[in-house]
Specification:
mainly alpha; 5 helices; binds MU-OXO-diiron
C-alpha cells in the first residue's frame, strides 16, 4: 500500500516521463526538419525510452495497489536555435529529471517506503547513463561545430540507434 505522498509523487513522475517523451518527439520533428535524420532517429528512440519509463511507473503503482492518475501532458517547445542547442536543452532536461528522481528517493526514505526506494534505484542508474550519453553528444557536437562534415558524420552514426526496452522487467 502506497502512502498518499508517495502515490502523488509517483503520479507526478509518471507525468514528467510523458512530458519528457513528448519533448523528445518534438526534438525529433525539429531534427527531421533540419535534414538531420540520424539525430531525428536518436530522439525518436529517446521518446520510446521515456514512454517505457512512464510505463514502468504506471505498472509499479498498480503493483502496489494504487491507481495511476494520468495528468495532462505539456505542449513541448517546437524550435531550437541550433542542433547543439537542442541537445543542450536535452541535457538540462535530464539534469532536472535526475533532481526529481533524487527527491523521490528522499521522500521514499522519509516515508519508510523501502520497496519504492528500491524500485527507484533503477531510475537513479538510468539517469547517470542518460546524462552521460547526452553530455558526450554535446561535447562531440561542440568540437565539430554546428554545421559541416563533422556534424553529418555524427548524424550518420546516430542513425544506428535502436530502442531496447531496458525498463521492462528490470
Ligand atoms: Fe526518463 Fe530521460 O528520463
Amino acid at each position: 500500500m502506497l502512502t498518499d505522498n508517495i502515490r502523488k509523487a509517483l503520479n507526478d513522475q509518471l507525468q514528467a516521463e510523458f512530458n519528457s517523451a513528448y519533448l523528445y518527439l518534438s526534438m525529433s520533428a525539429y531534427f527531421d526538419d533540419q535534414g538531420l535524420e540520424g539525430m531525428a532517429n536518436w530522439m525518436t528512440v529517446q521518446f520510446e525510452e521515456e514512454q517505457s519509463h512512464a510505463l514502468k511507473l504506471f505498472r509499479y503503482i498498480i503493483e502496489r495497489g494504487g491507481r495511476p492518475e494520468l495528468q495532462a501532458i505539456e505542449q513541448p517547445q517546437r524550435d531550437w536555435d541550433s542542433p547543439v542547442a537542442a541537445f543542450e536543452a536535452s541535457l538540462d532536461h535530464e539534469r532536472m529529471i535526475s533532481g526529481r528522481i533524487n527527491d523521490l528517493a528522499d521522500l521514499a526514505v522519509k516515508e519508510k517506503d523501502h520497496a519504492t526506494h528500491n524500485m527507484l534505484q533503477w531510475f537513479i542508474s538510468e539517469q547517470v547513463e542518460e546524462e552521460a550519453n547526452v553530455e558526450s553528444i554535446v561535447s562531440q557536437m561542440k568540437m565539430v561545430g554546428d554545421a559541416g562534415p563533422g556534424l553529418f558524420m555524427i548524424d550518420r552514426e546516430m542513425k544506428g540507434r535502436t530502442f531496447v526496452n531496458e525498463a521492462a522487467g528490470a
